[in-house]
Structure formats: structure tokens, C-alpha cells
């Protein structure tokens, strides 16, 4: 082979290597370009996300929500509470915003916040311990009230009528929406056609503050359901251990509410009811008869006991089909934590004192003594 041939071979190999290196450089440049584009896009997306999180959740909202900030809450905890309650978009961004602004000295307490508030407004309220504004309407719903009685109370304080309130709480489509929104306490059982009013018993007895003069029926109902949910959740494990559904527990709480005034008697009566259920005895509680009749009477007559209604616990054994009124928290606590006794009967005197008996004969003697 001549020297010229060697030079030609060397040049061809060199050209091949050059072309390979060129191809590799192109690939590397392309990959780096893509990475740079992704980093820029990611940075832009991150910037826009943070910018959005710093803005009000809903600047057009007129809604107000009462929120409790517990004593000793960290900034992280406060952010979580505000995010869970729909006041801010992101609790983590709130935490870093507070640290960036070097804010501190937040005070525990009950606040009224709105999704329309800026982070600075929220921070200012938390530092001063002041709510955003004072309530313009306060309505108290006592314990032991039926839906109809609750409708009357609101009709006397708001712009909607009793009929409008009752129409809404009996609207199956609306009830279906509420079941989806409050699955912890509501289920399809409330839509049983034999139940007089689906939300009977579920509108909690409490004092409610409103921050507009004319709240809608929906706002009123949902405020009350949220309160019921808040009260019921701590007892869910005990309710489950008793083998009850939430609907049965709320029903039992309404019965106890109407039978006794104080917590001690409510616990004993709850125990009496469970004893009777265990022995397949009807509960035989007069308030269910009055609810079935749809009227208030000072004294239930024997003829009243024959009213044919799934609420009538003289005619039908077991827990009635649904609640007969709302209830106080200690009535729910009583049925979740009943007093264990051997009592199967009780009778209330006209003064309100309650006397218990283990046997029917003893019950008759007490009834003769205190009810005649």
C-alpha cells in the first residue's frame, strides 16, 4: 500500500468521527434546550401558582364563616385551618408568606373570615384578635324543636316565610345535594317517604350569628347542618360500637331530649331504652305519640296510643323511623354513653321528676303515686 493510500484511509476515518461527534453535539444541544424550556416553563408555572395562592380565594364572595383558632396553634396549623374552611387557597403558601413578612403574635379565638379577604387582612385580624365585622342578625334555636317550629322562628327574624323554609327542606333534589355535602351525618335513609320531614332532628339547637340581614334558606340550613356535623363527629366511634347508625343515634337523642331535662336522667333513660331494645320490648315513649299525632297535649290518652304511624313507639317496636325534634349535645352524649342499669320502666311526675323501675308491677305503683 502506498503512502497516498494511507492518507486517504486516515481522512475517511477522521471524517466519520467528525460526523459522529457532530451528531452527538446536536443531540446534546437539543436535550439541553428542552431542559431549559422545561425549567423556564416550570418556573413560570410555579410563579403563577404562588401568585394565585397569594390572592383572595374568591374576591367576589360575600360569604362569612366562623372559625376557631385554638390556643397554641402554630402558623402551619392556622394555615391548614384556613385552607380546610375555604378561606385561603393554600395553607403552605400562607405559612411561608407569614414567615417572609416576619409576622407573629397571632391570637387564639373565634373569628369571622371571608374568602374575599386578602392575606394581609387575615394576618391583621389574627394579630389584633378582632373579627372582621359584627353580626347583624342573631337567631337562637332552642333544644327539642321540630322543623316546623324552627321554620316559625326564622320566619320571625328573616325575609323568608315559614312556607319557603319548609318547601326548601322538603325538596328531594336539595336534600340529595345535602346528602352529598354532609355524608358524615346524612344518608339516603332521610328520603324514606314515611319520614315526615327529611331534615327533622338534623338542624342543631344553638345560637347562630349571621353577617347579612337577609340570609337565604340554604345558608341557614347549611349553617345548622355544619353545626350538627361538628357535634356528632366526636361521638362516631361510640355510636358505631353501640351498633347504631348516625340516623338511629340522632333519632335516639331526640327521644331522650324530649323525655328528660338533665344529663343524668338522660343517661339513665338511654340505658332504659337500650334494655328494652335488647328484650324486644317497644320503647313506649309518649313524645313519639305526640309527634305522630302532630299536636301538643299535656296528657297522652289511651286512644292516642293507637295512632298508626311509624313514629308511634307503642304500636311499633324498635327505634322509630326518624327523629322527632332537634337535641342538645348532652342528649347525644347520653345515648353514646348510657347509664347501665336493670331498669325497664320510668315515669315522670307532673313536676318533672323521674322515677325508675325494674318490673312492671313496680312501675304501676310509681305511676299510681306520681301520675294520678
Automatic annotation (TrEMBL):
Q: Which family does it belong to?
A: Belongs to the transglycosylase MltG family.
State the protein's purpose: Functions as a peptidoglycan terminase that cleaves nascent peptidoglycan strands endolytically to terminate their elongation.
What's one GO-annotated cellular component?
plasma membrane
Main enzyme class: lyase
Q: Where in the cell is it found?
A: Cell membrane
Signal peptide start-end: none
UniProt keywords, alphabetically: Cell membrane, Cell wall biogenesis/degradation, Lyase, Membrane, Transmembrane, Transmembrane helix
Q: Which reaction does it catalyse?
A: a peptidoglycan chain = a peptidoglycan chain with N-acetyl-1,6-anhydromuramyl-[peptide] at the reducing end + a peptidoglycan chain with N-acetylglucosamine at the non-reducing end
Report the Pfam families cross-referenced here: YceG
Any one Gene Ontology molecular-function term assigned to this protein's record: lytic endotransglycosylase activity
Query: Source species, please?
Result: Melghiribacillus thermohalophilus
List this protein's GO terms for biological process.
cell wall organization; peptidoglycan biosynthetic process
Q: Could you tell me what this protein is called?
A: Endolytic murein transglycosylase
* Gene that this sequence comes from: mltG
| EC number assigned by the record | 4.2.2.29
List, alphabetically, the InterPro entries matched: MLTG-like
Q: Which Gene3D superfamilies match?
A: Classic Zinc Finger, Endolytic murein transglycosylase
Q: Which residues cross the membrane?
A: 27-50
Bilayer disposition of the protein: Single-pass membrane protein
Q: Which residues make up the annotated site Important for catalytic activity?
A: 259
Amino acid at each position: 500500500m502506498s503512502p497516498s493510500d494511507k492518507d486517504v484511509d486516515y481522512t475517511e476515518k477522521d471524517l466519520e468521527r467528525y460526523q459522529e461527534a457532530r451528531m452527538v453535539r446536536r443531540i446534546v444541544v437539543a436535550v439541553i434546550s428542552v431542559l431549559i424550556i422545561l425549567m423556564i416553563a416550570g418556573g413560570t408555572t410555579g410563579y403563577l401558582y404562588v401568585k394565585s395562592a397569594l390572592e383572595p380565594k374568591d374576591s367576589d364572595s360575600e360569604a362569612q364563616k366562623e372559625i376557631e383558632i385554638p390556643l397554641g396553634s402554630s402558623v402551619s396549623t392556622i394555615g391548614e385551618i384556613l385552607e380546610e374552611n375555604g378561606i385561603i387557597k393554600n395553607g403552605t403558601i400562607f405559612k411561608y408568606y407569614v414567615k417572609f413578612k416576619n409576622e407573629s403574635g397571632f391570637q387564639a379565638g373565634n373569628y369571622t373570615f371571608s374568602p374575599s379577604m386578602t392575606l394581609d387582612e387575615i394576618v391583621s385580624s389574627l394579630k389584633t384578635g378582632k373579627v372582621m365585622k359584627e353580626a347583624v342578625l342573631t337567631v337562637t334555636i332552642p333544644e327539642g324543636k321540630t322543623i316546623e317550629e324552627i321554620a316559625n322562628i326564622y320566619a320571625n327574624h328573616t325575609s323568608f316565610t315559614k312556607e319557603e323554609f319548609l318547601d326548601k327542606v322538603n325538596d328531594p333534589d336539595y336534600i340529595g345535594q345535602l346528602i352529598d355535602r354532609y355524608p358524615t351525618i346524612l344518608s339516603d335513609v332521610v328520603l324514606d317517604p314515611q319520614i315526615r320531614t327529611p331534615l327533622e332532628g338534623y338542624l342543631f339547637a344553638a345560637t347562630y350569628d349571621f353577617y347579612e340581614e337577609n340570609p337565604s334558606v340554604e345558608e341557614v340550613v347549611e349553617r345548622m347542618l355544619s353545626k350538627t356535623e361538628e357535634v356528632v363527629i366526636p361521638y362516631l366511634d361510640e355510636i358505631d360500637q353501640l351498633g347504631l347508625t348516625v340516623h338511629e343515634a340522632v333519632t335516639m337523642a331526640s327521644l331522650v331530649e324530649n323525655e328528660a331535662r338533665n344529663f343524668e336522667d338522660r343517661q339513665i333513660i338511654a340505658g332504659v331504652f337500650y334494655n328494652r331494645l335488647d328484650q324486644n320490648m317497644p320503647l313506649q315513649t309518649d313524645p313519639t305519640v305526640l309527634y305522630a299525632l302532630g299536636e301538643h297535649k299535656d296528657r297522652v290518652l289511651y286512644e292516642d296510643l293507637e295512632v298508626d304511624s311509624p313514629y308511634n313507639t307503642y304500636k311499633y317496636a324498635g327505634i322509630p323511623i326518624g327523629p322527632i325534634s332537634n337535641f342538645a349535645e348532652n342528649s347525644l352524649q347520653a345515648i353514646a354513653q348510657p347509664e347501665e342499669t336493670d331498669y325497664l320502666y320510668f315515669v315522670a311526675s307532673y313536676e318533672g321528676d323521674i322515677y325508675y323501675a325494674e318490673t312492671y308491677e313496680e312501675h304501676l305503683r310509681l305511676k299510681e303515686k306520681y301520675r294520678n
